[in-house]
Amino acid sequence: MASRSLRALASLVLVTSVVTLAACGSGEPGSTGPVLPQVTLPAATVGAAYEKVLTATGGTPPLTYTVDQVPPGFSFYGDTGRLVGPATTAGEWTLTVSVRDAKGLQSSRGYALRVWSTPVITTMSPLPAVKEGSAYTFTFGATGGAQPLTWSQAGGAIPNGLTLTEDGVLTGTPRGPALYEFTVRVKDANGALAEAVLQLPVQTSSGELPDGGPVTDGGTQTDGGTQPTATFKVGNWNIEWFGSTTEGPTDEALQLANAKAVIADAGPEVMGVAEIVSEEAFNSLKNGLSGYDGVLASGWPYGLTDQKVGVLYKTDSVQLVSSSVVLTECAQDFAYRPPLRVNLKVLNTATAVDLTVMVLHMKAYADPDSYARRQAAAYCLKNYLDTSLPTQNVMVLGDWNDDVDASIYTPYASPYVDFVQDPARYKFLTQALSESGARSTVSNSQFIDHQLATNELAAYYVPPTEVIKPSIVSYKATTSDHYPIFSRFNFGSAAQTRSVRLTAPNGGETLQAGKTFSITWTSSNVAQVDLTYTLDGTVWRSLASGLAASSGRYTWTVPSESSTSAKVRVADSSRTDVSDVSDGVFTLTRPVPQVFINEYLPQPNPAVPGGTTPDYDQQFVEIYNAGPTSVDLSDWTIHDAKTYSGLEAARHTFVPGTVLPAGKGYVVYSGASAVPAGAQYATYANNNGYGLRLDRGINQGGAGDAVYLVRADGTVQDSHSYQVPGVDVYQGYSFNRSPDLSATGNWSYTNPTPRTRTDGSPF
Question: Is the pTM of this model over 0.90?
Answer without folding.
Answer: no
